[in-house]
């Protein structure tokens, strides 16, 4: 039901933008919603570790999807909207980094537009907040992509993520929930966010 509501919301937003553009009154850049793909993979083959004798070195070519990749859309925070406006058009107090640090949590989504933190952010087992690789837009309608693959160092579940501008604390935006993923050591969880400025 949530996915249907999200789709309807996006269709309504696009229709409003289209109508406003045709009427010559478009002054809104719809850059708030991010499309995020969550992908959980696990190695199916391991090499022998020469130091320990254990078969615990994953063969990178053997990783397979544990669950189907999932596409989700985010909740936008008020502080995140303000940050985007300030970074784009501000003249002072600008941050040194965009919203490209990805944090994970194993909580259900309880955040709202007024949230300023991610509840129970994960800091252990290889899933601590980390900066994603960024591909910037180069023209109209071209997406900005933020991509990070986390590798679990121990058993850890995750079901929520958010984007920040700093490695600790900072401004939060683009919060979303996904199907809980139960990772074991060497599993990967890839988070790929795409934002298109139209």
Summarize this structure as a short list of keywords or feature phrases:
single chain, 198 residues, alpha+beta, 2 domains, four-stranded antiparallel beta sheet, elongated
Order of H and E elements: HEEEEEHEEEEEEE
What is the typical, i.e. mean, pLDDT?
A: 87
For the terminal residues, how far apart are their CA atoms?
27 Å
Largest sheet properties: 6 strands, antiparallel
The chain-level structural class is alpha+beta
**Can you count the helices?**
2
Beta-strand content estimate: 35-45%
Over the alpha carbons, how many angstroms does the gyration radius reach? 19 Å
Q: Which regions have little confidence, pLDDT < 50, spanning 5+ residues? A: 15-29
Inertia-based shape: elongated
DSSP helix fraction? 10-25%
How many strand elements? 12
Total tally of structural domains: 2
Question: What does this 3D model show about the protein?
Answer:
The protein folds into 2 domains: 29 residues; 166 residues, no CATH class. The chain is built from 2 helices and 12 strands. Strand 8 and strand 9 form a beta hairpin. The chain starts with a helix and ends with a strand. Strands 1, 4, 5, 8, 9 and 12 form a 6-stranded antiparallel sheet that branches. A 4-stranded antiparallel sheet has the order 7-6-10-11. It is of the alpha+beta class and 198 residues long. The longest helix is centred in the first third of the chain and has 21 residues. The relative contact order is 0.22.
């Amino acid at each position: 039901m949530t996915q249907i509501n999200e789709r309807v919301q996006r269709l309504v937003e696009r229709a409003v933008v289209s109508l406003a553009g045709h009427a010559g009154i478009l002054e809104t850049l719809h850059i708030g919603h991010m499309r995020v793909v969550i992908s959980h993979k696990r190695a199916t083959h391991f090499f022998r570790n020469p130091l320990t004798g254990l078969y615990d070195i994953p063969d990178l070519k053997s990783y397979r999807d544990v669950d189907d990749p999932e596409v989700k859309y985010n909740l936008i925070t008020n502080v995140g909207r303000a940050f985007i406006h300030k970074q784009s058009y501000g003249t002072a107090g600008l941050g040194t980094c965009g919203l490209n640090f990805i944090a994970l949590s194993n909580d259900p989504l309880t955040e709202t537009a007024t949230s300023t933190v991610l509840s129970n952010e994960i800091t252990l087992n290889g899933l601590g907040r980390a900066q994603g690789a960024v591909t910037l837009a180069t023209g109209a309608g071209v997406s900005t992509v933020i991509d990070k693959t986390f590798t679990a160092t121990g058993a850890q579940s995750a079901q929520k993520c958010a984007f920040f501008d700093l490695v600790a604390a900072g401004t939060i935006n683009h919060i979303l929930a996904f199907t809980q993923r139960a990772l074991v050591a060497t599993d990967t969880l890839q988070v790929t966010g795409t934002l298109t400025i139209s």
